């Protein structure tokens, strides 16, 4: 932790991304040759933690890895990225989470095997109640057990700690949580999946709370009177993996640093636009001055 600085706690997944580049996705029963393979640190939780730490946030991560090569590599990597790893547990006899990331035509498809991420249980969160309570912001996603997410939300609500919930993947999101969280940040698909209505109607139900990310188009929310669309920044996308995570990490950083909501979303859009310019979820995540430059150059 950096002295008296403002603490962002990220609760979530830590994965090794196994990245395969292919020209075309194989059909059922087909075997094809891919073009490239790489391993790269990922997991929505870890990505969001690194995004906020690169911007100079004081970030602590709560999560689990296996007692295997990926686990120790990912933990050392987070430490190297200035994320506090003292609440990352090594779980025996379980593999570290992995994500198979298939990149084709500048788009990605991801299959996650949670492994140790599903060993982050309610009891561990309860034991860390004090740590969570003295955070200035908590960020959480849905690659961990629903009961764990629920417990974190309950603690934040009880202790008045602001929380951003990034509902990805959206399938386990419980809409009841809306009454206890400050921000929900789905993409358009996740928004449709969760609310089962037009995006515009969902936004109007949750003013200044629901922020829908729109890929290269930016992000949108409803301020109680108007729909506010904050445009994205022009970029040359190499790999969009982790763009949403960069958005969330940057949004947390901006909000704890007292940006108003529209400036925070603008800042997060700029950070996300930079993140897609390199391969790998975390490689392109920018430093604060790079984000500021991109905003300044856009006029
Ligand atoms: O959001 C991107 C992330 O989703 C990848 O890094 C992968 O690990 C999956 O969790």
Which features does this protein show?
single chain; 299 residues; alpha/beta; UDP-N-acetylmuramoyl-L-alanine:D-glutamate ligase; 6-stranded parallel β-sheet; 4-stranded mixed β-sheet; 13 strands; globular; binds alpha-D-ribofuranose
Major beta-sheet overview: 6 strands, parallel
Please compute the radius of gyration using only Cα atoms: 18 Å
In total, the number of domains comes to 1
- Compute the number of strand runs: 13
User: Uncertain spans, ≥5 residues at pLDDT below 50?
Assistant: none
Strand order across the largest sheet:
5-4-1-8-9-10
Q: Name the bound molecules.
A: alpha-D-ribofuranose
Give me the secondary-structure category.
Answer: alpha/beta
Order of helices and strands: EEEHEHEEEHHEHEEHHEEEHHH
Cα(first) to Cα(last) distance is: 35 Å
- Find the CATH topology: UDP-N-acetylmuramoyl-L-alanine:D-glutamate ligase
CATH superfamily: Ribokinase
Shape: globular
CATH architecture: 3-Layer(aba) Sandwich
**What proportion of the residues is helical, as a percent range?**
25-40%
Please count the helical segments. Answer: 10
Q: Mean pLDDT, as a whole number?
A: 96
